[in-house]
Each structure stands twice: as structure tokens, then as C-alpha cells.
Q: What sequence folds into this?
């Protein structure tokens, strides 16, 4: 039975007659749907948000770097979106791409993963491969998903197959796409791994198999903790360089000319995105189960978490020098997405800066060509729309805070007309009386 279930699945994946279900149609799930469609698979996108489902079925994209035409093309091929989880029984593969945030205690919140799984369980059938892509701690797939699936009467590795394959999306990166970024995959068993590799190898240029789901889960955490730690280091170096009146960006550019042994990382106003501010906490939480204290990782987290307060202190000092206070000052925040040239707001440090400034009595506006209206967020609320950048607009603010350095901004116009600029991204190479590095 084991061999028959697996062989049927492998043959369907190979001949592209398999039906692929992607659960969670956000920045990870939707691009994955489009990649499978492009390769000729029947694809169903599942999401509990009916607005997303309706938008996609009407050929309307809600993600900036994915055009309406891409959605329309996919719909014309073999794609449709639904909120009806009962259709999961028709799928040969179910790929889970749902959020894994932190709760209010900064501990892993698996509610989206487990609620999604509970919604799918009644509709699972023999011969399916289930892949979790959501970032999580080592052991999640084996300890949380496997028992729930086997409680339905399945035997993982025999008549249903379970893998973990972490997403590696980088929205807005022109050099890499979903299909060209190598895909790590770990299975609960050898049979599961074989099914997982078959699931991805026909749509991803390179699949990287690892020995277990736990190894795959830790791989994803290492990738992002590596970035978090190095960003923490360079953020600390930024403060030291600033105190010594040295331009940290000049130093980084010079160091990056070394052809070996150095990788440039850049400071900023804090960490943003769905991974780097969150993933280290998943590992520190799990490490406590083994009696381990992740001091190095947590120290980097402390440095990165302190950056918004550092920026606020620089704003306060700069305004004070101009004989103004933060209270009642008009502040224009440039860029509220977490990284340049995208519309992704997840964990954006810009939002934290806006909240801190508002608490101090500042009057906040923002400008972001990628985010025309401040979106509904789980924890942050601003009733604001993006301000158009003109000479008169810039002149009307006491402070212009460059929080995200989108290419679309006219930095010459901003410099010419602003009374005071707080630059957290190294846009302006030379400080002046009105340009303050932060």
C-alpha cells in the first residue's frame, strides 16, 4: 500500500497531472501558485480571507510586485482561488504557507498553522503529500503536524507523506524569483523526502534535500539568525562610528572591496519583514527546552530592538538644535514598507517609529508610493494616506524622516526643500546642518 500510494503520487507529479493546493495566498503562497501554473499544473489557492479569494478570481492582485496580468494569465491556465477547504480532498499536494508570528509574550504562535491544519484534516486522503513552508522551530512538523494527521487514521510515510520546506521569498529582489532560489526540503522519512523532492523539483531549479524535517526547520532559522546577528553588529558599529564622527556607510563600502572574508550588511532604523525580527525568538524559545541560553542571538536582538529608540533620540536632539521640540512638530515619514521598493508592511520599523513619535506629541504623516493607504494591521492603526512629494509639501514639515529608501523618492528635491532630514538609510553621503545620520 505504501509503495502504491507513493508511486501514484510520484507519477502524477512527474507528468504534471497532480493537483496542487497552496494554503495561504500571501507573499509566499501566491508566487508559488503562479510558478506551478506556469509549469502546467492544476492549482487551487486556499485562503480564509474571502476578499483575497474574490480579488484573485477577478484577476486583481493585492501584492505590489505581482501584476494583475500575472493573475489573469494564471486564471486562463489552471488556477483558481477558494475559501472552501473541502476541495482539499481533490488535491495531490497541500502546501501550507501561513503566518507564524510571535504572541504578546514574544513566544511562537502556531495558531495559524494548527488552525489551518485542523481545517484541512477532515478533507485529507491517502496518497497526498503535505508540505509546511511556514518558518518555525525545529520539531514543529514532527511534534505538531504528524500526530494530528495520524489521529485521522493515516500512517505518515506509508499512505500520506509529510515534509518541511522553508520558504525563501525575497519580495522586490530583481535577481531571484521563486523558481530560481534553491529549495531546501526535509521529510519525516525517506519516502516522505522522495515525495517532497518530487513535489518541488519540477518547478524549482534546484532542490536541496536534507536528512530530516528538523534539519530543514533549523536551516531556515540559521539563515535569518545569521542576518539578524550581522545586522545587530553593524547597527552597533553605526552608533560607534556616529560618536566618532565617521560615516559608517563609507566604512562598509570600503570594507566590501575586500574580495574574501567580508559580507556587507547595512544598518537601519530597526528590523523589518516577516522573518528576521521573529525567527530568532523561535529558536531561543525552543533552546530553553534543552536547557540552553542563546546569549549571542539574544544580544543581537537587543541591539536591533533598540534602534527605533536610537532614531527617536537623534530626532529629538536634531529638533532641539533647531530650537524645536518633538511635541507638536510635523514629521513626514518617508517609506513605511519594511524594505525598499516593495509594499510589504510586515514588522516594519517605520510603523514603530510613527507610534513612538505620536506618543511624544508629534503630528505624523507619511509618504510611500508602494503603500497609498495605511493598511489594516493586527497591532497597528493609523488613519492615513500617502502624501504626495512636492516642494511645498516638504517645506510644510519640521522633519523629514527617511525610514525606507525607496528609489521612487526624489532625494534632490527633498534635500533642497526640507528644513531637517533624519537619514536612517545612508541616502545622503555627506551630513550637513540639516541632514542628520541616524
A:
Amino acid at each position: 500500500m505504501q509503495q502504491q500510494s507513493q508511486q501514484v503520487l510520484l507519477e502524477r507529479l512527474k507528468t504534471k497531472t497532480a493537483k496542487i493546493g497552496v494554503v495561504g495566498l500571501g507573499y509566499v503562497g501566491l508566487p508559488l501558485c503562479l510558478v506551478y501554473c506556469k509549469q502546467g499544473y492544476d492549482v487551487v489557492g486556499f485562503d480564509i480571507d474571502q476578499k483575497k479569494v474574490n480579488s484573485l478570481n477577478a484577476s486583481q492582485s493585492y501584492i505590489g510586485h505581482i501584476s494583475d496580468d500575472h493573475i489573469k494569465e494564471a486564471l486562463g491556465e489552471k488556477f483558481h482561488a477558494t475559501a472552501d477547504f473541502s476541495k482539499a480532498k481533490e488535491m495531490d499536494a497541500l502546501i501550507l504557507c501561513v503566518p507564524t508570528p510571535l504572541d504578546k509574550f514574544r513566544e511562537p504562535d502556531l495558531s495559524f498553522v494548527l488552525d489551518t491544519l485542523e481545517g484541512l484534516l477532515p478533507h485529507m486522503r491517502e496518497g497526498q503529500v503535505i508540505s509546511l513552508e511556514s518558518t518555525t522551530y525545529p520539531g514543529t512538523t514532527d511534534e505538531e503536524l504528524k500526530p494530528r494527521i495520524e489521529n485521522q487514521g493515516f500512517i505518515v510515510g506509508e499512505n500520506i507523506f509529510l515534509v518541511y520546506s522553508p520558504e525563501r521569498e525575497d519580495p522586490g529582489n530583481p535577481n531571484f524569483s521563486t523558481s530560481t532560489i534553491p529549495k531546501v526540503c526535509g521529510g519525516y522519512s525517506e519516502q516522505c523526502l522522495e515525495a517532497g523532492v518530487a513535489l518541488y523539483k519540477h518547478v524549482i531549479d534546484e532542490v536541496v534535500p536534507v536528512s530530516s524535517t528538523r534539519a530543514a526547520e533549523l536551516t531556515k532559522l540559521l539563515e535569518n539568525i545569521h542576518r539578524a546577528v550581522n545586522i545587530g553588529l553593524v547597527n552597533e558599529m553605526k552608533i560607534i562610528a556616529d560618536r566618532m564622527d565617521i560615516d559608517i556607510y563609507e566604512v562598509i563600502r570600503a570594507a566590501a572591496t575586500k574580495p574574501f572574508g567580508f559580507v556587507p550588511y547595512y544598518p537601519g532604523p530597526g528590523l523589518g519583514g516577516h522573518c528576521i525580527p521573529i525567527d530568532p525568538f523561535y529558536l531561543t524559545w525552543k533552546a530553553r527546552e534543552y536547557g540552553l541560553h542563546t546569549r549571542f542571538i539574544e544580544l543581537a536582538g537587543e541591539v536591533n530592538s533598540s534602534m527605533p529608540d536610537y532614531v527617536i533620540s537623534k530626532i529629538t536632539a536634531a529638533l532641539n538644535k533647531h530650537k524645536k521640540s518633538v511635541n507638536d512638530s510635523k514629521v513626514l515619514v518617508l517609506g513605511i514598507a519594511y524594505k525598499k521598493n516593495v509594499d510589504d508592511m510586515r514588522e516594519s520599523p517605520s510603523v514603530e517609529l510613527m507610534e513612538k513619535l505620536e506618543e511624544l506629541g508629534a503630528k505624523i504623516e507619511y509618504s510611500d508610493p508602494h503603500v497609498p493607504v495605511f493598511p489594516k494591521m493586527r497591532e497597528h492603526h493609523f488613519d492615513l494616506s500617502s502624501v504626495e512629494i512636492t516642494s511645498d509639501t516638504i517645506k510644510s514639515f519640521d522633519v523629514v524622516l527617511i525610514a525606507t529608501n525607496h528609489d521612487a523618492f526624489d532625494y534632490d528635491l527633498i534635500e533642497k526643500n526640507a528644513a531637517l532630514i533624519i537619514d536612517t538609510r545612508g541616502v545622503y553621503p555627506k551630513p550637513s546642518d540639516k541632514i542628520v545620520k541616524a
Summary: Residues 250-437 form a domain with the Rossmann fold fold (CATH 3.40.50.720). The chain has a mean pLDDT of 94. The chain has 15 helices and 13 strands.
